[in-house]
Amino acid sequence: MALVNTKNMLEKAFDNNYAIGAFNINNMEIIQAVATAAKKNNSAVIMQVSKSALAYANPKYLKAMVDAAVSDTNLDIALHLDHGPDIETVQLAIDSGFTSVMFDGSHFDYEINVQKTKEVVELAHAKNITVEAELGKLAGVEDEVNVSAENATYTDPDQAVDFVSRTGIDSLAVAIGTSHGAYKFKGEAKLDFPRLKTITKKLEAAGFKKFPIVLHGASSVDASSVAICNEYGGKLDGAKGVPNEMLREAAALSVCKINMDTDLRLAMTAAIRKFFALNPEKFDPRGYLGDARKMIEDIVDNKIKNVLGSTNSM
Ligand code: G3H
Ligand code: 13P
Ligand code: ZN
């Protein structure tokens, strides 16, 4: 067993109306938690690394630990660069043995995004590495209350077709109402499912059948993690994520990869806050990091089993 790219796992996800979880990793405990939860469910999984995680943990360490997860679990695991901001970071991921990369040119003018994404596709495809790119900007909490600003940043379906056909990417991250972090919605959670369906319909009409869509900013911001954080000294008032039912709906449609980082961060923080509050005399890191690892494992296990639907995708 070796690391795989995301091609087959996303194809299977599309065909069977589930989504593969893409979990951000930063250290050994997170990697082990994600690997153990995926193994429990016999599920393929994506471990993804942001530019700041590369700087924090060193790609050599991350690659070696994810290789260990593959040999320990025998699962299909993809090691993916999350939000690659420039060609240099993409090149670093490729040179470090990543099997999939995201180039995020969504903040550039459209033509520049097309041009740079194409360049990344040429680099990556030469090494059998899959490429995700983004079109439209994920709404911030402020944008959410302003309809015209919201429309201005959501993915345009016609532009999505043009983007996919001109760049040759393998999957497309869209903006349909999610946002990164723990404060996604001021009022009711709302995703633009009609827009998602239109994007996929137009892609199909243009010859891109079963094209995998990626949902970023998809943490559900579990009320129980937030409550534990707040009970033990945290201050996370008004935190709100994407309801699990909406993620399930997206997974049953064309969304094949669902990104979660905040949920893992909250679980880890909740476990550690609680451990320190209840055990002021203890100082062995294996105590609090062990609790953190278990809480992340439980969150990921529940996501795979009850939300993403990727159980037995191997
Ligand atoms: O989408 C962003 C991810 O949550 C990674 O965040 O750059 O703080 O590692 P980070
Ligand atoms: P969350 O902040 O909702 O976990 O989103 C993570 C993400 O999209 C990583 O690319
Ligand atoms: Zn993201």
Which key phrases capture this entry?
TIM Barrel, 8-stranded parallel β-barrel, alpha/beta, binds zinc ion, 314 residues, binds glyceraldehyde-3-phosphate
What would you say this structure looks like, in words?
With 314 residues, this protein is an alpha/beta fold. It has a single domain, classed as TIM Barrel, CATH 3.20.20. It is 51% helix and 13% strand. It has an eight-stranded parallel barrel, surrounded by ten helices. Helix 2 packs parallel to helix 4. The protein is globular. The two termini are 12 Å apart. The relative contact order is 0.16. Residues 141-149 have low confidence and may be disordered. Glyceraldehyde-3-phosphate is lined by residues 24, 50, 52-53, 82-83, 180, 261.
Short description:
By secondary structure, the protein is of the alpha/beta class. The chain has 13 helices and 8 strands. An 8-stranded parallel barrel has the order 1-2-3-4-5-6-7-8, surrounded by 10 helices.
Strand order of the largest sheet: 1-2-3-4-5-6-7-8
CATH topology: TIM Barrel
Distance between the termini: 12 Å
Give the name of the CATH architecture: Alpha-Beta Barrel
How many independent structural domains?
A: 1
* Broad structural category: alpha/beta
What integer is the average pLDDT? 95
